[in-house]
Write a structure and sequence with these properties.
Blueprint lengths: L6 E6 L1 H4 L8 H16 L3 E6 L2 H8 L9 H25 L3 E7 L1 H5 L1 H16 L2 E7 L19 H11 L4 E6 L20 E2 L4 H5 L13 H13 L3 E6 L5 H6 L6 E3 L3 H10 L1
Parallel strand pairs: 1-2, 1-5, 2-4, 3-4, 5-7, 6-8
Antiparallel strand pairs: 7-8
Helix pairs in contact: 3-4, 7-9
Length: about 280
């Protein structure tokens, strides 16, 4: 049976893309690019939302730790973004794929005119078989770097959900250093069970969110559940899974029980289709 063609947004976190030192994990990046190129070859439309610019820039500049001053963080982001795009382009080219860089700020998605232009740009790129690679424009935006400065973005989990909504995606996949949403913290509760399906963000589900993740990233489970709310309301399924197993992307695209899948609200999905 032929697989349904989908528009898929994949978000990869800093901890998946980098080593503990902050240097790029080239093996992980190549596995990711190969899977995305393959998914596109299967007929899916693919958009990548990537983190990691500040961590990579910190390592590239030879700094002993992530800068604390905002202007230095933004400078590190500018250096890191350049290096990341160079390597992404190199890997995608090896698999005969073209990619495009799109850097966003909160203003870009808040303003209706800018959002319309963005939607058209994404549409044109996907029509031409180009894989858009998206990140927040950390060199001019402080939303992610200094959380709370802007209400729209602030982390790439939220950014990826906004992109999925903007592009009317069918599926959003968050690749992280966790297997999914558990009914308790697996680090302190070995008996914790992985939830494979979530149909509604109940108070009980929201209480399962912990704090922020590793020093290299900014997001924790709370930001992922916030992203799930945006995606579900936009008629888009969202899956949280472990980025150490890039091959799981194939099974997720097929709808298999991998990680935690947050099911789109049926009425939201039908409303999106009506708009189209």
């Amino acid at each position: 049976m032929e697989q349904t063609k989908q528009r898929i947004v994949v978000k990869v976190g800093t901890s998946t893309l980098t080593h503990p030192s902050g240097a790029l994990d080239l093996r992980s990046m190549e596995h990711l690019v190969r899977a995305l190129a393959d998914l596109q070859g299967m007929g899916h439309e693919v958009i990548l939302v990537t983190s990691g610019a500040i961590a990579v820039g910190t390592a590239k500049l030879g700094l002993s730790e992530r800068p604390k001053e905002l202007r230095m963080k933004q400078a590190a982001a500018a250096v890191g973004q350049c290096r990341m795009m160079h390597i992404y382009d190199k890997f995608f080219s090896e698999y005969n794929r073209s990619m495009a860089q799109i850097l966003l700020t909160g203003d870009d998605v808040e303003d209706p005119d800018r959002a319309d232009h963005l939607r058209s740009t994404f549409s044109a790129l996907l029509e031409m078989g180009v894989i858009p690679v998206v990140n927040e424009n950390d060199s001019v935006s402080s939303a992610e770097i200094e959380t709370g400065r802007h209400k729209v973005l602030g982390d790439n989990d939220t950014l990826s959900a906004i992109v999925a909504d903007l592009c009317r995606a069918d599926l959003l996949v968050l690749l992280s250093d966790i297997d999914g949403l558990y009914d308790a913290d697996p680090k302190t509760h070995p008996e914790a069970k992985l939830l494979h399906t979530v149909t509604e963000l109940t108070p009980e589900i929201l209480e399962m969110a912990g704090g922020a993740g590793s020093w290299r990233g900014t997001g924790g489970m709370a930001t992922k559940l916030s992203a799930a709310r945006i995606a579900m309301n936009a008629g888009c399924d969202m899956v949280i899974t472990n980025g150490s197993r890039m091959e799981d992307l194939y099974g997720i695209a097929e709808g298999k029980d991998i990680g935690t899948r947050f099911l789109a609200r049926p009425q939201a999905a039908s409303q999106i289709k009506d708009k189209n």
